[in-house]
Task: inverse folding
């Protein structure tokens, strides 16, 4: 399977920021997705507020946020794997049908007055499961909807659409809750799935020719996790995400309690505060390019964290609705600055063949931190009070940002993860069976002994690249009988996996290989050999 790898998004083409709207499927899907996201935000507001009526416990209210985010933690990675190995259009259609069924069931039960706290949490969890199915696949199809030169504009428009829905959905939900009740909110959310479903059904997706058979599920999971483990730039993004979202989740989880108990506002006031967050996020999305032109990613995330900590403190101690609304504008601005910067970092650090899987790991970390943090801060609020929980979370944000500074976000910016396709076809005297394995590849180098330390450092970086592209194990040894003669080896699960590796090697990997091979002396290039485990029933 030839890997369709995207590079770091380039600047918008001459067509401008709105040029992706020229493509009918992208335009229709964008409009339908905004409507669907408005429905999702309406559900989030309705569920959080409905729980304050069903159970006044801060812990139960915080569990609504946990039930929303926990499915992403549990199911994003399997969904990302499936998005990489099955037809993404059909998978997205299944996700919409799942969400439609869950929302319609909850709305019907609410109309009948049969919703209990447990039912509300289960239905919210089911809707979160549909979102977990949808997110990795949706990110992966964008390159299929617009030309490569319009990718950055398409990503920016999708981000703006999310924030537009964030601004509209909560305010609309607050008004509907005031006049019609939560059942209508839940039923409107169900209807919001229909638009995306109709667009996906009408989309005539072109089949991608695959030279190699698709990966199996379990090996694909392992390949994705191995890639994340061996990608330092992506690991830095994940560490920074945990440091922020585990503490930042307190504001989201406890906002309904503050609105109702501390500010004395109803659902309309709650919707206004969430709309302020959305307006702040939209403003942030528009102004972020200017900030990025002046600030490094590391400095921008620190400033965003401090701003969100200040907004969290305001939520803890300010009791004037207008001032809290201003704080929520700041919270929305800083939240989108942090989320967008981390998402860009994850995109830059991820190759195309594993993109849905690797980005799903980012989603797992994000939503896992949100779910775990929501439950923890809800319990802290129950035991020590809401203001104390929010104050502790604000302190945690500041300390976490300081502790995570050693994990720089700059590492992914210089990567070129497009496939290099520079490896020649393996030299074999017969075509091995695809599942034959394990396979060991060796590369023999002749090195000046004086360059041993520098060569070892170059090989360590190359070893990570070998493992990222599929190697189960890797090592390098020096011949005890011939100083300067080194043998590199790496082992793969099967011959098919080695053929996949040929198509996964990136241009950055190629540069690492050339750096290591520059130490080689001799008229001939380093000798490459392929070894197969004996076939069942006898030697090969």
Result:
């Amino acid at each position: 399977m030839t890997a369709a790898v995207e590079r770091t998004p380039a600047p918008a083409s001459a067509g401008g920021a709105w040029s992706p709207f020229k493509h009918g499927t992208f335009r229709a899907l964008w409009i339908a997705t905004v409507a669907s996201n408005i429905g999702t935000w309406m559900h989030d507001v309705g569920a959080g507020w409905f729980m304050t009526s069903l159970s006044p416990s801060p812990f139960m209210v915080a569990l609504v946020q946990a039930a929303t985010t926990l499915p992403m933690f549990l199911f994003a990675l399997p969904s990302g794997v499936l998005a990489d190995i099955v037809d993404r259009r059909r998978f997205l259609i299944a996700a919409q049908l799942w969400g439609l069924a869950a929302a319609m069931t909850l709305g019907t039960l609410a109309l009948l007055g049969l919703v209990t706290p447990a039912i509300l949490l289960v239905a919210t969890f089911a809707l979160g499961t549909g979102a977990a199915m949808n997110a990795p696949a949706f990110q992966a199809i964008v390159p299929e909807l617009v030309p490569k030169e319009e990718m950055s504009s398409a990503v920016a428009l999708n981000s703006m659409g999310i924030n537009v829905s964030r601004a509209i959905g909560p305010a609309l939900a607050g008004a509907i809750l005031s006049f019609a009740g939560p059942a209508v909110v839940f039923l409107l959310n169900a209807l919001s799935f229909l638009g995306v479903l109709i667009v996906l059904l009408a989309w005539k997706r072109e089949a991608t020719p695959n030279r190699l058979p698709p990966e199996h599920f379990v090996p694909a999971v392992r390949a994705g996790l191995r890639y994340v483990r061996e990608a330092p730039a992506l690991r830095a993004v994940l560490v920074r995400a945990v440091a922020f979202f585990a503490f930042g989740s307190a504001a989201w989880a406890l906002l309904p309690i503050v609105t109702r108990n501390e500010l004395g506002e109803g659902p309309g006031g709650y919707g206004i505060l969430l709309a302020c967050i959305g307006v702040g996020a939209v403003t942030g999305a528009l102004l972020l390019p200017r900030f990025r032109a002046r600030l490094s990613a590391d400095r921008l995330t620190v400033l965003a964290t401090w701003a969100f900590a200040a907004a969290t403190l305001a939520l803890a101690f300010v009791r004037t609705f207008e001032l809290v609304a201003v704080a929520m504008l700041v919270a929305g601005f800083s939240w989108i600055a942090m989320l967008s910067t981390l998402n860009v970092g994850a995109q830059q650090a991820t190759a195309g063949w594993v993109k849905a899987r690797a980005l799903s790991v980012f989603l797992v970390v994000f939503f896992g931190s949100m779910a775990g943090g929501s439950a923890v801060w809800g319990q802290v609020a129950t035991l020590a009070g809401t203001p104390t929980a929010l104050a502790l979370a604000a302190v945690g944000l500041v300390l976490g940002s300081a502790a995570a500074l050693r994990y720089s976000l700059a590492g992914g910016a210089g990567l070129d993860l497009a496939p290099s396709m520079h490896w020649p076809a393996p030299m074999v005297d017969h075509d091995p069976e695809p599942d034959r394995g394990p396979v060991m590849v060796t590369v023999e180098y002749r090195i000046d002994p004086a360059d041993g330390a520098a060569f070892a450092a170059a090989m360590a970086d190359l070893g990570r690249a070998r493992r990222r592209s599929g190697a189960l194990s890797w090592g390098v040894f020096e011949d005890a009988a011939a100083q300067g003669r080194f043998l590199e080896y790496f082992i793969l699960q099967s011959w098919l996996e080695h053929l996949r590796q040929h198509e996964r090697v990136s241009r950055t990997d190629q540069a690492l290989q050339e750096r290591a091979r520059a130490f080689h002396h001799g008229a001939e290039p380093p000798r490459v050999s392929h070894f197969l485990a004996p076939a069942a029933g006898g030697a090969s």
In short: The mean pLDDT is 85. The first helix runs from residue 24 to 54. The chain is about 70% helix and 5% strand. The beta strands are 439-446, 473-478, 485-492, 527-532.
